[in-house]
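Researcher: Dear colleague, please comment on this protein.
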Amino acid sequence: MSTVGIIAEFNPLHTGHKRLIDHAHTLGDTVACVISGNFVQRGDAAIISKQQRAKFALLCGVDIVAELPVLWSMSTAQNFAIGGVWQLYNLGCDKIVFGSECGDINALEKAADILNSDGFFELVTQKAKSGVTFAVAREQAAQEMGVDFTLLRSANDNLGIEYILAAKKLNLPIEFHCIKRLGAMHDGDEIVDGFVSSSYIREELKKDNIGYTERFMPREVRGILNPEHISDISKLENAVLCSLRTKTADDFKNLPDISEGLENKIYFSLRVATSLDELYNMIKTKRYTLARIRRLVLSAFLGFDNQFFMVTPPYVRVLGFSKQGLSHLKSPQGIIPVITRASQIKDLDANAQKVFETECRATDIYALSLGTPLECGNEQKMKLLKTEELL
């Protein structure tokens, strides 16, 4: 029996994601998915909570849904990939499938081989000395070594390469598959052949256009969302600025993915900025992308440090499952603990408990960004979802 894995944000889940889930079922007997926590890779609050997104995934045919802890979900592509691939392996996945602009797994695996080769990192370091961003330096080095540069410029292709590299780094025997992305491109703002990007849907949801956006979501999840479920990080804006204004430059030195000297730019920008957008734009330069700046700012606000940067998560927390998923979970799977209840955390090691404490803090803060703010403690009280109870 084969178990197929998907790493996704489902922010929110749309018809393109449903197509990916359906394809995964053609590759194996059980489909497991690892979804982002309540804060996502672009340095933003997820438009709906991880529990709501887990519910959508189960209704659309996923058998096991686990969370990617926020320390990995709101991080670089490399750290995001390491966390997701590691968790899927520990759920017993022998295959991973993802969406791709090129749709050519051989091209993506060839690119990963080159990026994993001797001398590539040295060439990237050399290119970065010119002052360009890491992404540009990586692209330039890859092109010199024979990689099609368009693969690194395409969001899903680039992330797929990172998944393959993560498996190589962790020495995991995983087979990769991809499905060609149709319709609108990543972060596109148009409708193409009936498909739109998640960013398009997010913007419409923030305008309370729930009925309109549901036409781009699978039928299985229509009629569930209401305004109280929608998150907007602007509701946290003054809290973020207030918290960060109390910090010193040294407080920013141990953030994940911080570069030497950037902590001073963050600190002095905070002396002036009166909005998050103003803060982001003051810190952003040719060398530092906007997504990276947003992640750094939110990491400082949420109390993240670099202790868990570029390492594997210490546990897998399952958010929900189908009958097929439960049957799969009853058999021992990987190396790290697979848990279904928050109470199980107390039996794990200090690292696992710290990761969970960080998750709880992030969820308590996220709860204030929702259409109807929630009380603290939802991480500990979160109900395990079962597909048959959702139908």
Q: What stands out?
A: Strands lie at 3-8, 30-36, 39-40, 44-45, 64-68, 95-100, 175-180, 316-321, 338-339, 385-386.
